[in-house]
């Protein structure tokens, strides 16, 4: 009887191990899907040459599929009136702004690209002689305008533009060009173009500071609740499975896998910075455990 019982226990153990391996594969599959972001789908729509022209390097049909996400972002932000901060409380926004001002580290003029509703812009304004807020969402800029008037930020102007049209609206070089939680909506190629264009409007000792970039190594873990204080194995597994389903569904609908945008590897952002004649250091975000800051400067 003892031998029969032993075989039964071993069989159950084997079944349990097989079941666990299945769950592990589901989690890893979902994490890879979320981490890859646009790696294979949206890199290199056009290869921009430095003389100002563009060379098409993909088929017309593929181009239409790749460009689709941008319309999704425009639609998503069309009527938004608040930024994607962890909290809208002024106390939190003040702390977040202080962290960012520390990394901006001086300068007299600053452009905040993707300023949204101006939550951080109004904290930058007292520290600079001139501040420029840029966003492509009219509703966001309307809210930013209200904040600027309430804070009496007379040194601040707002510009309605995107990452391609903003440069035609500038008339003088800047000490700091920054963006917070914005570049997750741009592809690697678009980031390359932005840094290249920004370099021509940056003073000699100026900096480009990209705040709160989604880290593909940490974001999938945060998304399944691994950093949550009240997480459990059951919740983590459930979120991982949902993530796999959403990834498959989004791919079939030719929509972005995640409405929060794309994650970008710090190493690849550094290569883009180096390619454009800059150095880069990467630091962890203080208030978003799955994000990092890219501080870009000339050596």
TrEMBL record:
Keyword Transferase in annotation: yes
Organism expressing this protein natively: Methanosarcina mazei S-6
Keyword Transferase tagged: yes
A GO term for molecular function: transferase activity
Coiled-coil blocks: none
Keywords: Transferase
Domain of life assignment: Archaea
Protein name: Methyltransferase domain-containing protein
Domain Methyltransferase: 110-206
């Amino acid at each position: 009887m003892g031998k029969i019982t032993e075989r039964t226990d071993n069989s159950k153990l084997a079944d349990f191990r097989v079941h666990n391996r299945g769950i592990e594969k589901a989690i890893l599959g979902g994490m890879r899907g979320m981490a890859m972001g646009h790696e294979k789908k949206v890199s290199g729509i056009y290869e921009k040459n430095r003389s100002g022209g563009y060379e098409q390097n993909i088929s017309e049909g593929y181009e239409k599929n790749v460009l689709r996400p941008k319309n999704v972002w425009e639609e998503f932000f069309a009527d938004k009136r608040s930024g994607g901060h962890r909290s809208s409380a002024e106390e939190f926004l003040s702390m977040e702004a202080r962290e960012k001002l520390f990394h901006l580290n001086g300068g007299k003029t600053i452009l905040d690209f993707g300023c949204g509703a101006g939550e951080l812009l109004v904290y930058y304004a007292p520290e600079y002689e001139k501040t420029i807020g840029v966003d492509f969402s009219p509703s966001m800029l309307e809210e930013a305008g209200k904040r600027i008037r309430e804070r009496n930020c007379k040194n601040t102007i707002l510009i309605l533009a995107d990452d391609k049209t903003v440069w035609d609206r500038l008339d003088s070089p800047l000490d700091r060009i920054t963006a917070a939680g914005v570049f997750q909506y741009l592809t690697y190629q678009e980031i390359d173009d932005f840094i290249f264009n920004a370099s021509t409007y940056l003073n000699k000792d100026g900096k480009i500071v990209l705040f709160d970039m989604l880290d593909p190594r940490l974001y999938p873990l945060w998304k399944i609740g691994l950093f949550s204080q009240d997480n459990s194995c059951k919740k983590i597994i459930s979120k991982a499975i949902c993530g796999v389903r959403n990834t498959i569904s989004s791919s079939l609908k030719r929509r972005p896998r995640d409405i929060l945008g794309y994650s970008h590897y710090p190493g690849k952002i550094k290569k883009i910075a180096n390619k454009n004649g800059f150095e880069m250091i990467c630091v962890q975000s203080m208030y978003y455990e799955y994000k990092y800051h890219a501080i870009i400067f000339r050596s």
